[in-house]
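Reagents: none. Just compute today. Nucleoside diphosphate kinase regulator.
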Amino acid sequence: MTTPPPITITRLDLQRLERLLDSLDEYGPAAEALEAELARAQVVGHDEVPSGVVTMNSTVRCREEGSGKEYHLTLVYPDAVGGEGKVSILAPVGTALLGLSCGQTIDWPAPSGKPLKLTLLEVEYQPEAAGAYAR
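Predicted 3D structure written out:
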């Protein structure tokens, strides 16, 4: 695995995600991974985040480098999972996408345990860029 790229998150997402972590009945590996990402993130105001950064409820286009397959994913809270392309922040790929900027590549642990390389190609929708802060 490579060193994870630098990430940026909004203060509002940080507060909401900390509340989510506090509310969990079981604090397992998924919560620990999210907590580690939050601890290393640069935190900015919701009006300061660049439009090419993945925030909560962002829809992104990314590519798995080994196969070249592209995915359209929306990063959501666990209670909003359902429907095609919605991925929980507590899923390994969800945690890995949070705060990523266009062009950055991450290692994504596949169900087989083998790391896959995922490159963020585009943030198709970001709530902050759209002025949708109460999400």
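Strands lie at 8-10, 42-44, 59-64, 70-76, 86-88, 105-109, 115-125.
Action item: order primers for follow-up constructs.
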